[in-house]
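Protein 1 of 2
SEQ + STRUCT:
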Amino acid sequence: MKKTKIEDLKRIEVEEFKKSIKHDVIIILDNVRSLNNVGSCFRTSDAFLIKKIYLTGLTGTPPNRDIERTALGATQSVEWEHIKNINEIEQKLKKDNWKIVLVEQTNKSINLKNFIPNPLDKYAFVFGNEVFGVSDESLKIADLAIEIPQLGTKHSFNVAVSLGIVLWDYYSKIK
């Protein structure tokens, strides 16, 4: 066994990425405090060819050195927009037939393993603040909430880790 060389990975350039057909997935980061988490979310979103990231509330925006440290250039490839009020973008997406899916522990959350995405539907996955979770506004408008099963003593995953788990789960189920 040997590691694959960078030049053998056949990665696409930013312009080719922008022209690529994306999955019908949008990411909404709801008041995410950590700029490193934001950067990691960009990098993972690039890897899964998502359509767009909405940065809402106090979530930091590019250009920012701390975001770039973990994004490794993905802020140039992944389309993004900052929206102050999360309710504004969720209402717009719902009108355009996007399913609003919270990644949150609620009294009505379904286990991620039981989430069966319909390949014909469009999904906006909402990831909340590292301490307080998704905003109350999102709870009122969401179509459903999914919860990642956990077996240890902690109650939650890091937001960037959660995003990676959810996107991999979605990708593996629609393929």
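Protein 2 of 2
SEQ + STRUCT:
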Amino acid sequence: MRELPLACSLDGPALAERIAEMRALGKDALIAAEPPGLLRFRATPDTRRRLERIVAAEAECCPFLGFELSEHKKELRLTVTTPEGANTVATELLEAFAG
């Protein structure tokens, strides 16, 4: 099994753009951010589309992260998992969405 580096591959401008996208989605639809890695959003088709796009992009630049998007009642729940030693990355993601 190949070890993945615990680092994001985005450069400064691309990272700033991604964080802005997360903050905008958080402002529009975030219900709660619960450490260590649960984000709860209002369930709308637009929110799901935006979350799926962000998750796909994050899976490419941060392949060591795990993402699970599910729907529960009227909420979309995004669970972010990290390998041991990378919990700060999940916290940073929660903070990005929470603005």
